[in-house]
Amino acid sequence: MTDVTGAQVTGAGALSTGMALVCLGAAAWLAGGWHSGVRRARLVLAAGRTGGTAGTGPPPVRRVAEELRKARGRLRPEWGSLAVGVVLALLGDSVLPAVAGAVGVPVLRRTRLAGRARRARERRQDAVIALCGTLAGEVRAGRQPGEALLCAAHDSGGLGDAQAPVLAAARFGGDVPGALAAAAGQPGAEGLRGLAACWRVAVDQGAGLASGLDRLEGALRAERDQRADLRAQLAGARATAVMLAGLPVLGLLLGVALGADPLHVLLHTGAGIGCLLAGGVLESLGVWWVTRIVRGAEAAS
User: What is the biggest distance separating any 2 CA atoms in the chain, rounded to whole angstroms?
Assistant: First the structure.
């Protein structure tokens, strides 16, 4: 009796275990089928939204953002002058602001290009200083001048666009001082003339190249620091020029705040047009004079 009962219990346990496994398998199959169905539905919907090419292209919003970013990269800041002129022309019902904005485009473009050239010149001056310091360290470490110049030029980039002929002269025993003097014609690379002189003296007279490069690096650093100090002292003059350029705009805003119509007076009356022309001439002369003073001080330094 006990054996029969144990067998029944064992059979019932096995049956219940098997039923549990069957239920778990069915649940897992249903869950997998449900999720796979959801995945298929999502893919179908995505293909419908993108024209059957799901995942092969950016969404419309992202595509528009990329096009706007590309357009902004192609636009130049000086075209803002024309845009402001067009807006003022629409507000004042006159073509004069649009003409003035169009005239301001080449002026602002020239200013932007001059600023870019100045920054490139300063970067090249720093690279020449780094070249002198690195070359002095390589020579002091025991390298031959030609080999040291090859290493220093690759590390600092101070030779600029003339790096290939200078390195060719150093590698194949050419006229390195002549190549350095020719490379000094680049804006900001004037310090290479001193490097060419140090190289010529070291090769012809057997003088120490490292000590000459140390003195040259110190002189170039002192010249750069002097220019930085002068630029800081001339910051007040530049601020005056910016203030002169912004005073007419402030006057127009003040007139609008007082309830007047300065655009109508300046653009549609004889006295206003005369004042506008005279003010524009005096404004241009003032900005030109301050800029001339700043450039003259920088050139004298």
Answer: 127
Please state the separation of Cα 87 from the chain's center in Å: 29
Task: Provide the sign of the torsion angle of the four alpha carbons 294, 295, 300, 301, taken in this order.
Answer: positive
H helices present in the chain, as ranges: 2-49, 60-74, 79-92, 96-140, 145-156, 163-171, 176-183, 191-205, 209-233, 235-257, 262-268, 270-300
Could you tell me which of 135, 157, 131 has the C-alpha nearest to residue 146? Answer: 135
pLDDT digits (tens, 9 = 90+) for 134-148: 988 888 888 888 888
pTM: 0.65
Give the Cα separation of 131 and 157 in Å (integer): 7
Q: What is the mean pLDDT of residues 231-238?
A: 83
The 10s digit of each residue's pLDDT in 99-118 is 888 888 888 888 889 889 98
Handedness of CA 143, 149, 153, 158 (dihedral sign): positive
